[in-house]
Each structure stands twice: as structure tokens, then as C-alpha cells.
Amino acid sequence: MNSVRASNVSRRPRRVSRPRPVQPERNPQERDEDVPADMVAEESGPGAQNSPYQLRRKSLPKRTVCPTKTNMEGASTSTTENFGHRPKRPRVSGKCQDLPAAPAEQYLQEKLPDEVVLKIFSYLLEQDLCRAACVCKRFSELANDPILWKRLYMEVFEYTRPMMHPEAGKFYQINPEEYEQPNPWKESFQQLYKGAHVKPGFAEHFYSNPARYKGRDNMFYYDTIEDALGGGQEPHFDGLIFVHSGIYTDEWIYIESPITMIGAAPGKVAEKVIIENTRDSTFVFMEGSEDAYVGYMTIRFNPDDKSAQHHNAHHCLEITVNCSPIIDHCIIRSTCTVGSAVCVSGQGACPTIKHCNISDCENVGLYITDHAQGIYEDNEISNNALAGIWVKNHGNPIIRRNHIHHGRDVGVFTFDHGMGYFESCNIHRNRIAGFEVKAYANPTVVRCEIHHGQTGGIYVHEKGRGQFIENKIYANNFAGVWITSNSDPTIRGNAIFNGNQGGVYIFGDGRGLIEGNDIYGNALAGIQIRTNSCPIVRHNKIHDGQHGGIYVHEKGQGVIEENEVYSNTLAGVWVTTGSTPVLRRNRIHSGKQVGVYFYDNGHGVLEDNDIYNHMYSGVQIRTGSNPKIRRNKIWGGQNGGILVYNSGLGFIEDNEIFDNAMAGVWIKTDSNPTLRRNKIHDGRDGGICIFNGGRGLLEENDIFRNAQAGVLISTNSHPVLRKNRIFDGFAAGIEITNHATATLEGNQIFNNRFGGLFLASGVNVTMKDNKIMNNQDAIEKAVSRGVTPVTQQTETPSV
């Protein structure tokens, strides 16, 4: 469609007449001759006080004039007089007399009711209205009436709320009632005045009625956007284009200059200004379009053929190398099944896209690739067939406060070295993960909410990286964070909670730094490590889970240090099936079952931990597990301190085990651990209890102040006790019963209340170099229990 160009209509400048000089005062008869009789009657008649036009009256101070001067001398214009400037006094002596304003001028400026003046002003255009405001103070006040300017404003721009334009690239609408200035309509008019208008059908009317629109020399009207873009050579055109209500189809909009294009319509502006293309990208920004602006419109790509055959490179918005436009308050839709709605590609592509709605597209919403950057803020990105956002090939955007939700695929997908900084985004209810990182991608995600995903929250795989800091990750159907296949992200300072499965799931050779997170209320383990994965897990709080705290299995590894693991339904830490983690300086407490549970060949190192107040044992070792347990404090268990059973092994060294409700260490059912240099004391039951075929090497331990026997050996068990000190017990030092045997070498057994050594009949004990001394005589109590007490012995007895 060809536009109607402005014709070279000759325009004469409008002349503004100067105010008439003040006339000398005349007598009443002279006045009645000059002023119409009806005005005189109204001003001076008996009904003057009740006249319908007596709405506003102002009286001016009387002026004086010297009789020796002419009428022009000493007179001033009404404008000057209205602003209160006093006239010069003549340097002539003589009596002066009052001199009123001319009656017609005085009536127009002072006596004519406000409603009548406003009615007259309503027929003026903006420039004439501004000129009228220069006449006098009263006219200035009336000519600035917001209702007058609202009518003019809506006639030109159509907005039902003022559109403020305080600086280049910045537009926003306001509520007039809440604006700090008295007349936002006029202020906005001044800011938007110089511009071209695309208003189909209006251009011909505008240019064919020059008298009607006299004074609007700075406005240009076109029928198409293409014509408006081509009219950039017009004088007074400063690059501002208003696109008025309507649907504009198949226009070729290639922008390579810093123009500003904004929708102009009543109500919800963007919904009423629609620009669409069915053949090519709707908007293309090219080099030279730095600082261009497009805002408040709907941009659609709606090809007739939805297939990939002809449209695989076409988009609603295409932003290419070395340009940085601003896209603001736009609605962006694409029905093409390939490509993306918005494509930002190439070195130097750095747009600002803000307050836009990129939704319901049959492809990717926002695609940033090939070293492109840009700022993307406060956008709504939803219900897209593929990812809401793709970042690829060293793309590095800054994405803040976006709402990314209800996608039919992943929410945000960074891959193939994609990067980006994502801050304060709300990402939820996407069909796949809320945020996916793959193939050396390395985004930074800060203070986002990632929740209610139909699968997981964050999925990092195939050597993905990334920093996820201070996010809230919750209520996802699968794990809050998945890390797999040699990926190595940093997960720091997040709250990961209320997941329908686990909190953090690391598998398939995954790595990562899991640090300072609050992980709680998840249906499965707070952190799960499996299949050769080896993360660093430290300074986390893992608590109140419906399952265990940390679950390491299937040859999982990792360094787990300085965490607080508490109040979980199952074990605080599970280690199983060939796993070998290192657990160091953790506080594992207040669990509803076991503190640390090694089973089915679970191995690893457990050192320098505080393990306390569990409903079951502090540590359990079973079924071939062989951990190294060193320098821990294990106390307050409602069962025992350490329980080794069902062929469990382990090296238990330099621990302090105390104040447990049952034995400090239990060894049973063919288990064979090594206990060295432990302090096992103040138990509410025995120190060490070995029974049901238990074995083990007990060496250089201090076992003291326990309520029952320091060491109880029973039912076919056969441990070796070497160089232990067993003393100050409230029962026997060592008690051996029920066909058990033992080897006792170099032990010191003293100060025990029920004797140093109690041996049941038929028990075979090998003893060498033991010191049994200062134990209280407890023969009566021993007989009553069917055992033989040994209170003082330094040699092997013949039993």
C-alpha cells in the first residue's frame, strides 16, 4: 500500500495581535454607547448578583494616569498588568485619576465565566491553546485545564492514559490521578509532539485539510509502516513513529537506523496494534539500529505453511550483529513449528527486551546464540512448544525478573557453551526441567524460584557446569537438582525443599560443589549420590526429610563435610553397594532411625563427626561393609553407639562413645571389626557387647564408668582383647558366658564394682599378661549369676 505523502502546502505563520492599550476612563454615558446593552444590563442591573454567568469574578487594581500625559503613556498591556507589574509613575506633578481597562477586553479576560472560556478553548488546537495561555494569568490557568489537553491528546495519540517519554528509549503509562504534576496530558503531549503517525486512511484527510490542522507542522501521517520508515528525510522528523490501532500485514520492516516505533491505541495498547508477517521475519534489526526502540504492539509471525520447509530461519523478531535495540511492552507470537519467536544472534547483538509477553509459540520463545548478549527483564514467557529460553554457543545474556512458566518443554535450556546471568526469575510448571544445562554450558542463576516442575527443577548433564546461588527450588515432581554425566556445577546457598522425590540427585559420574544449602522436607533423600559420582557436599543443612538425609549407593563417592544432618525419618546418612564417601566434621543428630548406616558392602571414611540423639544406633555396619570410623563423638543414642552385625567389618579408631542407652559398641552375627584407641564410657548399659558369633580385635581402648559390664562376650563369640584398660565400671570388667571364648592379652582391669573378670563354667579363655586388680569382691553376686569371679589375677588362670 502506497502512503500519501505530505504536499508542499504553503503555510503562513499565524500572527498574534498585541493587546490594545488601555483607554482613559469615560463617564457612564460614553460606556453605554460602546458596550452592548445586554452586557451593560447584566453587569450593572439589579440581577447582576444572580446572573447565571456570575460564576467567577475578578477585580483588578485600579490604575491611575496623569492628566498631562497622552493615553499611551503610562498604559500597559493586559498580560503585564495581570502578572502584577506596576506601571512607571510619570515625573509630573498633578492629581491623577482612575483609568479602567477597555470594557470588551476587561469582560473577556475578567468577567466571562470559566465555562464559556473553556468552551471556546475546546475548539483550539495545541499551539493556539498555548498562545492563549500567554494572554493573562487567568487564561494561563484555564488553557492548562487537564480536560482540554486530554481531549487534544486522545485525538492525536489515542492513549487513554498519558504515555510519558522522559528520555530516549523510555516510555511508560501513568494514572493521571496519581501523577505528581497537575497536567500530565499536556506534559506527555510536549514529550511526544514531534513524530510521524501511521494511521491508515487518515493521511489523505490530514493533508487535504490544512486549515483544520494548522499548526501541526511537526506531525506527519502515513498509511503504512514502510512509508513511515522511508520518510526519515522529512524536516523536523526526529525518528519517532506512532503506529495506530489496526492490523498491519506483510510489511517488510528492516530497521537499520535508531528510530523509535511505538503503538498508539486506547486501552491495552499492545493488543490493538498488531503487526504480522506470513512470509518473512516480522521485524529485522540490522547493523545501524543501535538505540532503536519498538514498543507497545503485538508482533506475530504467522506463516501459511507451518512446516520447516520455508521458515526455518524466520522469526517474529530477528536481532543481528552490532545492534542494540529496545523492545518494550510487546506481545510476541509465532505459529511456525521451527525456529524461535525471538532470535538474537551474532557478535555485538545486545538488545534490551523488557515487559514483553512471549507466549503460546509453537517453537522456542527466546533464542540467544553466537556470542550475542543483551538484557531481558520483566518478561512473561509461557506455554511455548519448546524451551521458553535457549542460550547457545557462547551467548551470554542478562535475564532478570522473568516469569517463565507452563512451557511444553523445558523452561530455560543452556547448551553448547551457552552462558548467561539469570536473576530473580520465577520458573515453574514446565513439562520438563525448569532449568537445563548441557554440553559445557555455564550459566549463573541467582535468587530465582524454580518450582512445581513436572519433572525436575534443575537438570545439569553431559559436562554441564553453572552456578546456582540463593535460589528457591521446591515442589518439583522429581529431584530439585539433577547432576549427571561428568557435570560439575556449583549449588550454593539454595533452599531445596518439599520435592516429590529427592532434593539433590547426583548420578552417572556427576560431580559438583553442593555448599551452604538448606535441604528439607523432601519425599526421598535430601542428597543422593550414586554410580561413581563424586561431589563435594559441605556446610549444608539436611533435615526433616521424609526419607534419609544423604544416600550414597552404587559405588558413589564424594567428600561430605561440615554439614548438619538432622530430624530425618530414616538414616541420617546411608552408605551402601560399594560406595566410598568421606564424611568429615558433620553433625548428624536427632534422627528417627540410625545416624550413619553402612550396609551391603558400604565403605568409606567417617571421621571427626558428632553423631548423637538418634532413636536407633548412632552408627550401624552390616553385610560386608568395611568403613573407617575415626575420631567421632557418638553419644545419646536410644539404642547403642555403634552396632556391627551380619558380617559387618570396619576400623573403629580413636572415637569417643558415651551416654548411649544400650551398649557403646555391639558386635554380633559373625561380624569382625577392629576397635582401637576408643574411649567408651558412661553408657547406660555395657561398654562393648559381643554375642551371637561376634568376633573382632579390641585394642588399646579405654572402657570405663559403664552401668553394666565393660566387655560382655556371649554365645559362641570369640574376640581378641589386647592392651585395653577396663575400669571404674558399675558391674564386672569383663564377663564371658554362654560358650563364648576370648583371647585376653595385656589388658588392665581394675576398680570395677562386680569383679574384674567373670567367667561362666565351661568357658575357655586364653589370657596373657593381664593385670586384674583392685576390683571389689563380688563372689555372692557372681554365684547368684552362675559365673566365677576373678578379682585379682596377673597370670593365665586354669579354667
TrEMBL record:
Pathway: Protein modification; protein ubiquitination. The keyword Repeat applies. GO terms for biological process: regulation of apoptotic process; ubiquitin-dependent protein catabolic process. Residues 67-82 have a biased composition (Polar residues). It comes from the Eukaryota. The keyword Protein biosynthesis does not apply. It holds the Pfam family Beta_helix. Residues 1-10 have a biased composition (Low complexity). Residues 1-97 are annotated as: Disordered. Residues 106-152 form the F-box domain. Keywords: Repeat, Ubl conjugation pathway. This is F-box only protein 11a isoform X4. It comes from Xyrichtys novacula (Pearly razorfish).
